[in-house]
Amino acid sequence: MNKKIASQILSIIDHTNQKWQLINPTEPVIFAISGGKDSLSLLTILHNYFTNFKAVHIAIAPNSDLSFIPYVEQFTKLEVVDTNIMQEAKASKKNACFICSRRRNQAIFEYAYAQGIKKVIFAHNRDDVIETLLMNMLYSRKISTMLPKQALFGGKIEVVRPMYQVPEILLFNYAKQLPVIDKSCDYDGNTKREYVKDLIKLIAKKHPNININDNLYNAILNVDLEHLPK
Fold first, then answer.
1. How far is CA 134 from each of CA 43, 70, 168, rounded to the nearest angstrom?
2. DSSP state at residue 120
3. What is the pLDDT of residues 143-195, one digit of tens each?
């Protein structure tokens, strides 16, 4: 593993934790593991931090790629929850990505509640936060994004995102040696998130002297309410 990049990521996580007080080493937590670069990186970097943790993967189809299991089980047993979420999403008249995300989260929260564990760790990174902001503005007509810490169901479940401030490029470089699975969703390459991601890259390419991602992220933390209509 690239120790230098791991150190950079961990330093950002430490800063994020100090800022929002997301995690502490003695509390029981659940890592939501997708098998992608973000969740495998987070587990690799943070597994030594906790004394009591579990990992869960929501398989969205019977043929889901589970080749990452042996890697995860170096750290802890991986609980795989089998579902037919992909079939549900394709059959729905609503946005398939919305249905998939909502159902996967529901399955993770149900697992956490059954285990008596309140805190669920998601591996969303800073780019996810930025993209969600623009997606909500463009498609949902609201100014909102993911939160670093969010209490749900009256506080019965708490979602935290320790990599909230970690740029995706760091995770991309760190995860090169991890057994990251290929995306297997039928909608890969044709989602609103991928469109927004490409749009941000295009804007950044056209303005090489401006750190577009930094500006977008900092805009989230610098909302000028005096210049927004009520």
1. 28, 36, 17
2. E
3. 999 999 999 999 999 999 999 999 999 999 999 999 999 876 777 777 899 99
CA angle 117, 46, 109 (to 5 degrees): 25
pLDDT in tens, 32-76: 999 999 999 999 999 999 999 999 999 998 889 999 999 999 999
Domains and CATH numbers, the chain: 3-227 (3.40.50.620)
* Residues in Cβ contact with 213 at an 8 Å cutoff, skipping those fewer than 6 apart: 126, 127, 130, 167, 200, 204
In terms of Cβ atoms closer than 10 Å to its own Cβ (0-12, 13-18, 19+), residue 53 is buried
Residue 125, classified by CB atoms within 10 Å of its CB into exposed (0-12), middle (13-18) or buried (19+), is: buried
Residue reference for tokens 């059954």 = 114
How far is residue 80's CA from residue 104's CA, in Å, rounded to a whole number? 12
**Contact yes or no for 65/181 (Cβ under 8 A):** yes
CB distance 51 to 28 below 8 Å: no
* Structure tokens that stand for 158 in this block: 């708490």
Q: With 0-12 CB in 10 A as exposed, 13-18 as middle and 19+ as buried, what is 140? A: exposed
- Would strands 149-152 and 157-160 be described as parallel, antiparallel, or unpaired? antiparallel
Q: CA-CA distance, 158 to 227, in Å (whole number)?
A: 32
